[in-house]
């Protein structure tokens, strides 16, 4: 004889997010005084507001002497009882090299100023980091807010996570259902006209415009673009994300940004801007700045101007071939560089 059965489960949820706090010209912050800090803007994780506090001269006289202090600071939503968090603070160079990393698990409430490390980074590590990264670095904070456990009845029906993007990504390899082809630099790409038209007004005009209707087959010749860039463009159209290898240098990102602008893909254009802001260096900053000016990328242009003016790299930048191109194609930007340097008192 079967006996009645019931089931329940303990469910614990965690919400994770990351915030990058970029610090430029750090030596100018030193000398602020013990206990003085700079903070990132507030960011939200798990329904709570947080920021990163960085103490250039340490947070306490004796304990933190010769060290930079760093803390995660609650800014609202934690309540009097607090929330349990796991978090990691990492000091990164421009190439993602880890100079210092610390992790902890703690319950934080709104009554405390922050939780972290008095001795986050010692002076030798700091100086090495500054020498190799134009006097700046990034503090990356990864926070997981752990909610209180709850008890639920066990359901017999489990709804899986959406996999629609994986299905769309698979369509890129599906030659059988493709109805339009693109020839790019000698390579042929098959795609689906309805997908491309839904994502880009330019693709819509190319595929469903009057000129295409007069042709027996849908074939489009794409000029002035590398096959690898068009492949990355299609990947974004189908998956709404950059390919995994898209972060390999600023030059491919420059070409992909131009392609995004050409096809009216605003989100892709902004993703490229973000990647390029993180990858600015002496060799590519001039061409990146020229590109930002030509394609009206306001934030990217600002990041380039700040890099040239504040990183002590002006002489090296002026000696690059990219700077000669910049001066010839965008002479007004050279004046903006001088204005930026003047505003910083360099």
Automatic annotation (TrEMBL):
PROSITE patterns: BTB, MATH. Belongs to the Tdpoz family. PANTHER family: BTB/POZ AND MATH DOMAIN-CONTAINING PROTEIN 1, OS04G0625400 PROTEIN. One of its GO terms (biological process) is protein ubiquitination. Gene3D superfamilies: 1.25.40.420, Apoptosis, Tumor Necrosis Factor Receptor Associated Protein 2, Chain A, Potassium Channel Kv1.1, Chain A. Pathway: Protein modification; protein ubiquitination. CDD domains: BTB_POZ_BPM_plant (cd18280), MATH (cd00121). This is Uncharacterized protein. It comes from Digitaria exilis. Residues 16-143 form the MATH domain. InterPro entries: BACK_BPM_SPOP, BPM1-6, BTB/POZ_dom, MATH/TRAF_dom, SKP1/BTB/POZ_sf, TRAF-like. Pfam families: BACK_BPM_SPOP, BTB, MATH_2. Residues 178-246 form the BTB domain.
